[in-house]
Specification:
It is a single chain. Helix 3 packs parallel to helix 5. The radius of gyration is 17 Å and the shape is globular. It is built from 7 helices and 14 strands. The protein is of the alpha+beta class. The chain has one domain: Endonuclease/exonuclease/phosphatase (Deoxyribonuclease I, Chain A). A 6-stranded mixed sheet has the order 3-4-2-1-14-13. Strands 5-6-7-8-12-9 form a 6-stranded mixed sheet. Strands 10-11 form a two-stranded antiparallel ribbon.
Length: about 260
């Protein structure tokens, strides 16, 4: 069973690339971030032609997350995080799919630092942690996957000095991520690539893709019940190099049934 995550950077702008990826890799579940469309504009009919059904949580022009499943309708559990009623960003979607609790997230970027956007990021991460602990308490096989906008360690970036001032690498961001792992979640890519050097994002600027100046911010965290089923994981890097591609590459985990 393959579960993939893909920050598509605009579902309409990248639709040909997204459909191409789904056809070529055929994940059982695909979690999308930055769909950048209101709910009524989500192109579900195009995915249904390929056999996928889905749920989504959209927002005009920004953010937005979706969960697609091959031949099965995801059963929604929760959209949005509790704890900040005035927060209207579409960044969190949770569903039961094929016997797995699937959580798709698009964590705030947090730049510039310091400032209100970074404060919001840290609050959001604490709210996420509370929800993830509630999921752990259910003792269900679960995955929390998506764009975390956190570079966990210096091994996860092409040049630590180049990103040192960025919100993605600040101590507060890294500590919040580390606390999730300390609670019992397993970082799939880090587990299978302990030396690092695996990137999931390459900026459009400064020839980052051509020079392989990337970093890892798209993560799949597995509950103990699901970590035992992890067979393999990886990054569909080739899709980042295609015409009009997202600046992220898809990340996947393969799980035993």
């Amino acid at each position: 069973m393959k579960i993939s995550t893909f920050n598509i950077n605009g579902v309409k702008a990248r639709l040909p690339r997204l459909l191409e990826w789904l056809e070529e890799t055929r994940p059982a579940v695909a979690c999308l971030q930055e769909i950048k469309t209101q709910d009524e504009g989500f192109p579900i009919a195009e995915f249904e032609k390929l056999g996928y059904r889905g749920i989504w949580h959209g927002q005009k022009g920004f953010n937005g997350v979706a969960i697609l499943a091959d031949g099965e309708m995801p059963v929604e559990v929760q959209r949005g995080l509790e704890g900040e009623p005035e927060d209207e960003h579409s960044r969190y979607l949770e569903a039961d799919v094929m016997g797995v609790r699937v959580v798709c997230i698009y964590l705030p970027n947090g730049n510039p630092v310091p400032g209100p956007k970074y404060d919001y990021k840290l609050r959001w991460m604490e709210r996420l942690r509370r929800r993830m602990n509630a999921i752990l308490a259910e003792e269900v096989p679960a995955i929390v996957t998506g764009d975390y906008n956190v570079i966990p360690t210096d091994r996860d970036v092409w040049s630590p000095p180049a990103m040192a001032a960025d919100a993605l690498m600040q101590t507060g961001s890294r500590d919040a991520y580390s606390r999730l792992l300390g609670d019992g979640w397993t970082d799939a890519l880090a587990t299978h690539n302990p030396r690092g050097g695996v990137w999931t994002f390459w900026d459009y600027q400064a020839g980052a893709w051509q020079r392989d100046h990337g970093f890892r911010i798209d993560h799949s965290l597995l509950s103990p019940e699901l970590a035992d089923r992890l067979v393999s994981c990886g990054v569909d890097k080739v899709h980042r190099g295609r015409e009009k591609a997202s600046d992220h590459a898809p990340v996947w985990v393969e799980l035993s049934r």
